[in-house]
């Protein structure tokens, strides 16, 4: 690249003026000096270039003004460029004027004396004037540039790249200096007073002081300098054979017709041509005479252009004239081949036709042509739609299957038209067996077509241009060799798929593929190309069976793995229970109002139970992605929780649903909403306060009476009502008044109905009701109070779990499920958990968590003793609970899980050893149970035996007991001896002998298994358990009974210690209470601690000395803890669990995350869900064969298949 820069030089900037000095003793400040002038820039020099060749490969450039010659550019190098720069210089800026000096301060006057008056202060000096700014210099003129060539070398004009000939900028005048400030006036002399006494007469005298001097005046600002004159622009011209041109030649694509394929579809491998295009000369001179201009296309991702197909413009194009591309001289090109099959999509790409026009000898392209492109869609002429399929079926059901083949082109396709076309339905695993039952049972034409030589070739990988080496064509369960499909025709292939293997485990996914094969473009009648594959699967599921003893309903889908489902089942079985299942993919929906075979709605069957809803994505019948929340909708879940008392555990990505609508009603401002089931109770309370006691015996007061009484008491906040208020004549209505009213109403309703959160909306719409002299009555708008979800109990827990496939319930999930059970069921679960220590720990933590919820809800509520007992229902129930019965040894019965072909026994739920997250290793429970306690007839110095081991007491005394609270384990013989050191020796030996016999038997049995090379035991059963299972029945019963006793005592010890520490945490809460409510909180706190103490001493028989000792030790540990830290572990232990397993999943619980809120109606988010609540549930509608008579309902099958056919949709372009 060559660059000729003959620009002028810039002028220099003027010198800034000096600032004036300050005046002294009231003198004037000195003036600032003027700034210097900027100098003028110089003009650019002219550039005169002559471009020529000498018959060689060199380009010769003569610069006539400087008499220079350059010959270092070679013809044909596309990187050759010449830049010409002849800009005028920029004028110098003027210097800034100097600032004026400050005036001198005046001298102070003399003070008065007995003999003279005070003198005035001196006036301050004036500030000096600022200096004037210097003038800016003039800009230089741009130069004259000419580039000369003859007709034979006019292609050399393409070398000129950038040309600049601008005049220089004018220099800016310098700013004037600022005038100096005036000096301060001198201070006047002070006055003098005295007195004289003669003959007892005192006379007072004074001499006045002087006045302060006047301040000086500010100096004048200097004048800014004048701007210089900008330089004039230069000129540029091409000279061709003595004639001057302002612009050279230039080309653009003026018009191009769309590229046409013979069948309307541009597909990979196809050859195409451009046969209608105009190339226009938009330049200022004709195109070169002696050199050709080549028209071609640039190769890219999808376009292949052969250089031999380049089109040359054979003559010069005059200014404004065109050159036409026609059928006689087309630009031919090809779409590149593509032999990969599109997986679960349609092959569709965009090919960019990138035009080029180049002057041959100089090898330079026209940028205006390069900038123009056209885009075309590349696809195959046929495609298959997404599969329409019932994604989950029971063994008796058949899944309707429908898929369509669409010929998008304008030509028929098929072997009858010399192009192969074939459809295959493939089973991916031949260990599984399925039947495809076509919609038409007798299709002799299809059999004939499939048996033809071309149909047989479709089963041989050798006949494919893109063979799949891992594919076994014996997997084909259905083939449709298509001999003809017309232009824009759609051919549907449909039927049903039925599973055949009766031993197939539940929740197995039978994976299949739908493949479309097309004749390879370059050999369309002999070679296949697999152009598209649709993957899909059918899940073997089981129908919904209601078990009255089940406390859980799992709503899962076709993507849920058997591993996850089994983990939920095992969780329920570990408590001796069961879980009901609802496959939303099989039933095509879920609705609490659905009435099934039991003739009761789900809302009745699952009242006071827990529904587990998985929100991962899965496919609908039409392959569209969805999730359970899109099918059920958040308001329906809210309705189930609020109206039907069905708690919910939502597990899956939070991004798949709007959590706001799970905890808020979807109401509008005009709805009239009451407080629900509490209405009559509130009425009776309000009526009592209103002294209408004679009406209390009414079971159902009339609506108007009830509304009036409640409205008077609550100022109408139980309903939607108009807020009336008086406003003085000098004030205007304001939204602040209704907002203040709304906040006070919300506070009052929270006190009167404390068990629930409330949502309040208000709409500010002021209307004058009655005008008065001093004040007027206004209706400021509507206020609505809605009872929301409970605050004293968890009814909804959501967990953000990104991946659910191939995962199991973890400890956080298991705790959340127990937490969502009612308090009464939790107490019942304590008895059912006695066969599994880890389960019992979670139940105890969930019980205490519920007690925390109730305590937090009512701790600041003013209430008498009777109200306190009525509000703290769980505490009262806990106090009355029969712990002796609940803590008896218990072993849940083994459950059986049905599979097709029989039953399979599940091993006991193998709950991994639970470790509390903040617990140090030395305080965790080991996997082996501790030694059982001493017999009941043993004495410990005449006292009850302690329920804690000695190591715990040592830890307590040494302050080593870390937070959160857990039990220590008796993990060695030394600790066992410490615990039983006062027990009679014979009893110790007896207990230890039994324990040692158990261990020795298990160890011997394990050794025998290893010697015999026996396989490892079943997953979920330890080696010791597997060995113990081989013992004689009598000995096994003895071992099992011993284990049950050990677990029972573990649970008892843990419960005692957990309650002691909980009582200490409650005691610590008093120190956090606010002064305004300390007495109220202390009353509730004392009530709860009394209940715990009563349970420990009277029911669990723990000595008060031990309670005090351990409680005080733990209380000291809490002194450094934050208020939230102290209580969080008891109210929400799952948070600590989540942190401990280093899981990024987040858990939200409604009664911890939701608060009563007031919204302006314009701020309350409204959403139209547009979802019909009457969801049609598919229950048994895909069973076509009578189980007894084995008769097939062909019409029903036909109708179902056609329904699926009608839902076929192709991928959107």
Sheet with most strands: strand arrangement: 4-3-2-6-10-11
Our count of helices gives: 29
Instruction: Show unreliable segments.
Output: 668-701, 706-718, 896-1031, 1170-1174
Average pLDDT confidence is 81
Q: Major sheet: size, sense and barrel closure?
A: 6 strands, mixed
Classify the beta-strand content into a percent band.
Answer: 15-25%
Q: Give the termini separation.
A: 47 Å
| Amount of helix | 25-40%
**Count of discrete structural domains:** 6
Instruction: Choose one word for the global shape.
Output: flat
Radius of gyration: 48 Å
Number of strands: 47
Q: Which structural category do the helix and sheet elements fall into?
A: alpha+beta
Polypeptide structure, described:
With 1213 residues, the chain is an alpha+beta fold. The chain has six domains: 1-193 and 206-247, no CATH class; 249-379, Immunoglobulin-like (Sandwich), CATH 2.60.40; 393-540, Immunoglobulins (Immunoglobulin-like); 550-663 and 806-821, Rossmann fold (3-Layer(aba) Sandwich); 711-791, no CATH class; 822-887 and 1040-1141, no CATH class. The protein has 29 helices and 47 strands. The strands form twelve sheets. The protein has a six-stranded mixed sheet, with no helix packed on it. Strands 20, 26, 28, 30, 32 and 33 form a six-stranded mixed sheet that branches. A six-stranded mixed sheet has the order 35-34-36-39-43-46, with helices on both faces. Strand 3 (58-63) and strand 4 (68-74) form a beta hairpin. Helix 17 packs parallel to helix 24 (1078-1099). The model is unreliable at 668-701, 706-718, 896-1031 and 1170-1174 (pLDDT under 50).
């Amino acid at each position: 690249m060559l660059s000729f820069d003959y620009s002028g030089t810039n002028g220099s900037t003027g010198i800034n003026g000096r600032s004036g000095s300050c005046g002294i003793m009231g003198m004037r400040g000195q003036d600032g000096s003027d700034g210097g002038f900027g100098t003028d820039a110089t003009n650019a020099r002219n550039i005169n270039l002559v471009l020529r060749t000498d018959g060689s490969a060199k380009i010769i450039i003569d610069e006539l003004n400087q008499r220079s010659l350059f010959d270092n550019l070679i013809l044909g190098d596309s990187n050759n460029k010449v830049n010409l720069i002849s800009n005028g210089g920029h004028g110098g800026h003027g210097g800034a004027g100097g600032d004026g000096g400050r005036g001198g301060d005046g001298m102070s006057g003399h003070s008065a004396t007995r003999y003279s008056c005070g003198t005035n202060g001196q006036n301050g000096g004036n500030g000096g004037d600022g200096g004037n700014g210097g003038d800016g210099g003039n800009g230089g003129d741009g130069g004259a540039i000419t580039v000369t060539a003859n007709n034979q070398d006019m292609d050399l004009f393409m070398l000129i790249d950038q040309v600049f000939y601008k005049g220089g900028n004018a220099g800016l005048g310098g700013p004037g200096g600022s005038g100096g400030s005036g000096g301060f006036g001198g201070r006047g002399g002070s006055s003098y007073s005295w007195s004289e006494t003669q003959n007892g007469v005192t006379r007072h005298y004074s001499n006045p002081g002087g006045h302060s001097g006047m301040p000086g005046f500010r100096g004048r600002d200097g004048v800014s300098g004048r701007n210089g004159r900008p330089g004039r622009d230069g000129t540029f011209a091409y000279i061709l054979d003595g004639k001057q041109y302002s612009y050279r030649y230039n080309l653009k694509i003026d018009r191009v017709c769309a590229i046409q394929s013979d069948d309307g579809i541009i597909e990979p491998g196809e050859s195409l041509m451009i046969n209608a295009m105009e190339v226009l000369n938009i330049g200022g001179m004709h195109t070169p005479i002696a050199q050709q201009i080549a028209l071609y296309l640039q190769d890219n991702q999808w376009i292949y252009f052969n250089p031999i197909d380049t089109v040359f413009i054979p003559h010069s194009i005059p200014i404004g004239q065109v050159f036409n591309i026609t059928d006689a001289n087309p630009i031919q090109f090809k779409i590149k081949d593509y032999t990969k099959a599109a997986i679960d999509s349609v092959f569709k790409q965009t090919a960019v036709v990138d035009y080029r026009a180049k002057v041959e000898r100089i090898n330079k392209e026209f940028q205006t042509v390069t900038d123009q492109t056209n885009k075309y869609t590349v696809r195959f002429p046929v495609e298959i739609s997404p599969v329409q399929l019932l994604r989950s079926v029971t063994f008796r059901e058949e899944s309707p299957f429908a898929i369509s083949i669409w010929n998008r082109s304008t030509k028929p396709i098929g072997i009858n038209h010399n192009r192969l076309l074939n459809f295959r339905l493939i089973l991916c695993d031949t260990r599984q067996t399925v039947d495809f039952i076509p919609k038409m049972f007798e299709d002799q034409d299809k059999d004939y077509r499939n048996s033809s030589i071309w149909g047989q070739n479709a089963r041989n990988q050798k006949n494919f241009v893109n063979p799949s080496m891992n594919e076994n064509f014996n997997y084909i369960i259905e083939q449709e060799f298509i001999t003809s499909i017309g232009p824009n025709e759609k051919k549907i292939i449909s039927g049903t798929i039925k599973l055949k293997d009766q031993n197939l485990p539940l929740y197995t996914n039978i994976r299949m593929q739908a493949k479309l094969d097309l004749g390879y473009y370059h050999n369309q009648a002999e070679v296949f190309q697999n152009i598209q594959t649709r993957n899909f699967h059918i899940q073997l599921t089981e129908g919904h069976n209601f078990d009255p003893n089940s406390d859980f309903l799992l709503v899962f889908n076709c993507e849920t793995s058997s591993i996850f489902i089994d983990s939920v089942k095992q969780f329920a079985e570990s408590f001796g229970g069961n879980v009901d299942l609802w496959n939303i993919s099989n039933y095509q929906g879920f609705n609490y109002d659905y009435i099934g075979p039991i003739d009761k709605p789900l809302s009745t069957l699952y009242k006071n139970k827990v529904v587990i809803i998985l929100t991962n994505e899965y496919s609908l019948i039409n392959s569209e992605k969805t999730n359970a929340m899109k099918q059920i909708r958040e308001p329906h879940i809210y309705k189930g929780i609020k109206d039907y008392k069905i708690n919910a555990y939502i597990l899956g990505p939070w991004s798949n649903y709007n959590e706001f609508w799970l905890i808020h009603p979807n109401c509008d401002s005009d709805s009239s909403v009451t407080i629900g089931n509490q209405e009559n109770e509130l009425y009776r309370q309000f009526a009592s306060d209103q002294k209408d006691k004679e009406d209390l015996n009414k079971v159902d007061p009339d609506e108007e009476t009830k509304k009036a009484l409640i409205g008077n008491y609550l100022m109408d906040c139980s309903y939607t009502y108009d807020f009336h208020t008086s406003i003085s004549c000098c004030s205007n209505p304001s939204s602040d008044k209704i907002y203040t009213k709304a906040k006070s109403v919300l506070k009052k309703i929270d006190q009167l109905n404390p068990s629930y959160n409330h949502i309040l909306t208000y709409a500010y719409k002021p209307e004058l009701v009655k005008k008065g002299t001093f004040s007027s009555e206004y209706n400021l708008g509507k206020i609505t109070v809605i009872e929301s979800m409970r605050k004293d109990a968890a009814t909804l827990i959501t967990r953000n779990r990104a991946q659910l496939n191939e995962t199991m319930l973890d400890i956080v999930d298991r705790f959340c499920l127990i937490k969502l059970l009612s308090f009464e069921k939790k107490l019942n679960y304590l008895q059912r958990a006695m066969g599994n220590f880890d389960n019992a720990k979670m139940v105890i933590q969930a019980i205490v968590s519920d007690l925390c919820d109730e305590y937090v809800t009512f701790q600041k509520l003013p209430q008498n003793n009777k109200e306190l007992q009525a509000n703290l229902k769980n505490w009262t129930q806990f106090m009355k609970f029969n712990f002796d019965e609940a803590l008896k040894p218990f072993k849940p019965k083994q459950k059986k899980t049905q599979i097709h072909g029989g039953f399979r026994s599940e091993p006991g739920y193998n709950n991994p050893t639970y470790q509390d997250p903040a617990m140090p290793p030395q305080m965790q429970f080991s996997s082996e149970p501790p030694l059982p306690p001493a017999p009941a007839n043993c004495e410990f110095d005449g006292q009850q035996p302690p329920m804690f081991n000695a190591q715990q007491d040592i830890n307590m005394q040494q302050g080593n007991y870390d937070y959160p609270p857990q039990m220590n384990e008796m993990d060695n013989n030394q600790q066992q001896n410490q615990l039983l050191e006062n027990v009679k020796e014979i009893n110790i030996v007896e207990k230890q002998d039994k324990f040692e016999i158990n261990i020795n038997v298990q160890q011997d049995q394990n050794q025998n298994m290893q010697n015999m090379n026996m396989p490892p035991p079943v997953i979920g059963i330890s080696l010791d358990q597997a060995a113990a299972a081989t013992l004689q029945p009598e000995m096994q019963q003895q071992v099992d009974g011993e284990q049950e006793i050990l677990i029972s005592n573990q649970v008892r010890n843990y419960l005692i210690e957990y309650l002691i520490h909980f009582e200490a945490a409650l005691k610590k809460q008093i120190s956090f209470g606010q002064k305004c409510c300390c007495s109220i909180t202390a009353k509730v706190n004392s009530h709860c601690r009394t209940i715990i103490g009563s349970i420990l001493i009277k029911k669990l028989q723990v000595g008060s000395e031990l309670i005090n000792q351990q409680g005080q030790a733990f209380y000291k540990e809490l002194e450094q803890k934050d208020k939230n830290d102290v209580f969080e572990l008891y109210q929400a232990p799952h948070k600590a669990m989540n942190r401990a397993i280093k899981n990024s999943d987040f858990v939200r619980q409604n009664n911890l995350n939701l608060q009563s809120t007031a919204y302006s109606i314009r701020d309350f988010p409204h959403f139209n869900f547009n979802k019909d609540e009457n969801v049609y549930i598919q229950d048994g509608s895909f069973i076509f064969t009578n189980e007894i008579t084995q008769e097939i309902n062909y019409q029903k099958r036909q109708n179902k298949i056609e329904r699926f056919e009608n839902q076929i949709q192709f991928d959107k372009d």
